[in-house]
Write a structure and sequence with these properties.
Blueprint: E1 8-15, E2 19-22, H1 23-33, H2 38-50, E3 55-58, H3 82-105, E4 118-123, H4 132-140, E5 147-152, H5 158-172, E6 177-185, H6 196-204, E7 207-215, E8 224-233, E9 241-246, E10 249-254, H7 258-276, E11 286-289, H8 294-303, H9 312-321, H10 328-339, E12 346-353, E13 357-365
Parallel strand pairs: 4-5, 4-6, 11-12
Antiparallel strand pairs: 1-7, 1-8, 2-3, 6-7, 8-13, 9-10, 12-13
Length: 366
């Protein structure tokens, strides 16, 4: 299939909660919450300095350093259970998803809410039914006949899986217009036990949402066109990245061996991805990589022998937003597309998630 026949992406909208938290403030919160002794204080300072994150956004007032009038602290004297965290998720997630969707629909491409035929909701940080996808139909003014799908609990990789489903819909129906939204409230799942895994996870994650409008036809030139997808489930790696529902929120597991596994599996995976699009590595001008953490980006840069400029977008998103799970790679893709230079046309997007699994996409600008 030629580039002109590939699914067009018209706009990408992003949104974050109103509460911005500087990494230094989160560090101070963690030191107080854990009643850190000298050893733990040194460990926390090292992890937060090494994260290369300057700020993040959150739906929780706790991490700001100072409570504002009327704000409810979630992590007070008693750690909240899963039910209370899900109540906050239900109160906050639709507004965040709505903001991202409105930003995507305001992309001045000639498509409006009533043109949307399919709504895909991606989230792994909470659930309720009828869910945010149903809420969005009324709030955004989508048609009652819109076809809905929710992709849940697939973690940081799920944006590309959502795009793959959207692409399949658009390829099967040339009139289909898909609105894909990834919305995550990761900071709801702060864990109070100071294990090494929890300390690292608490230093990385933030909240955010991103929406993509794709398919159909519009008057303007698309941001890019989706070309080819590839997936790979690395054998015998099920315990490297995990995500379980506990009595005190969702418990994430993140093994320190994840970067090494990615380094080992990625070169062959990239070659298969590019072969599916009849491309060579030296034809790729742009890289949109999920910034799961500094060590993940370092591993990709090293094993793929990439010039640092190719990861500048991913590192900037990590620095200013942290890891927002599924939404993050769409923040990166938006930044990479808007900052691309003339002559830079072909790109790769990569995500990593529970499994351990690798998800890849090739795309072409315009």
């Amino acid at each position: 299939m030629g580039d002109a026949n590939c699914t067009p992406v018209w706009s990408i909208g992003t949104a974050v909660p109103s509460q911005r938290i500087e990494q230094d403030h989160v560090l101070a919160f963690m030191q107080r919450y854990y009643k850190a002794d000298k050893r733990l204080e040194r460990r926390l300072k090292y992890l937060y300095r090494r994260s290369h994150i300057v700020q993040r956004y959150t739906c929780c007032a706790d991490f700001n350093g100072a409570q504002r009038p009327g704000e409810e602290l979630l992590f007070g004297a008693e750690e909240p259970g899963t039910e209370k965290r899900m109540r906050v998720y239900g109160e906050e997630i639709t507004g965040l998803a709505e903001a991202a969707c409105r930003n995507a629909l305001a992309g001045q491409v000639g498509l409006v809410a009533t043109d949307v035929t399919h709504l895909i909701m991606v989230t792994c940080t909470g659930f309720y039914a009828p869910g945010p996808d149903v809420d969005l139909v009324g709030i955004l003014g989508l048609r009652p006949q819109v076809q809905r799908l929710q992709i849940g609990f697939m973690g940081c990789q799920a944006a590309l899986q959502g795009l793959q489903v959207a692409d399949a819909i658009c390829r099967s129906d040339s009139q289909a217009v898909v609105l894909l939204v990834c919305a995550e409230l990761c900071t709801l799942h702060f864990q109070s036990e100071p294990t090494e895994e929890n300390l690292i996870i608490n230093s990385l994650f933030g909240d955010g949402a991103a929406a993509v409008l794709l398919g159909g036809s519009a008057a303007s030139k698309p941001l890019c066109r989706l070309q080819n997808f590839s997936s790979f489930l690395v054998p015998q790696t099920q315990e490297i990245v995990t995500w379980h529902i506990g009595d005190r929120g969702y418990r994430m597991g993140l093994a320190l061996t994840a970067p090494a596994v990615i380094r080992q599996a990625l070169p062959a995976f990239i070659d298969r991805l590019l072969a599916g699009a009849t491309l060579r590595r030296d034809e790729i001008d742009l890289w949109a990589i999920h910034p799961g953490g500094r060590s993940i980006l370092d591993a990709v840069e090293r094993v793929m022998c990439l010039d640092p400029q190719y990861l500048a977008g991913a590192r900037a998103i990590l620095s200013n937003y942290g890891n927002m799970s599924s939404a993050t790679v769409l923040f990166v893709l938006k930044k990479v597309l808007h900052e691309a230079q003339d002559g830079q046309r072909r790109g790769v997007a990569l995500t990593f998630g529970p499994g351990l699994s690798l998800e890849g996409l090739t795309w072409v600008r315009g």
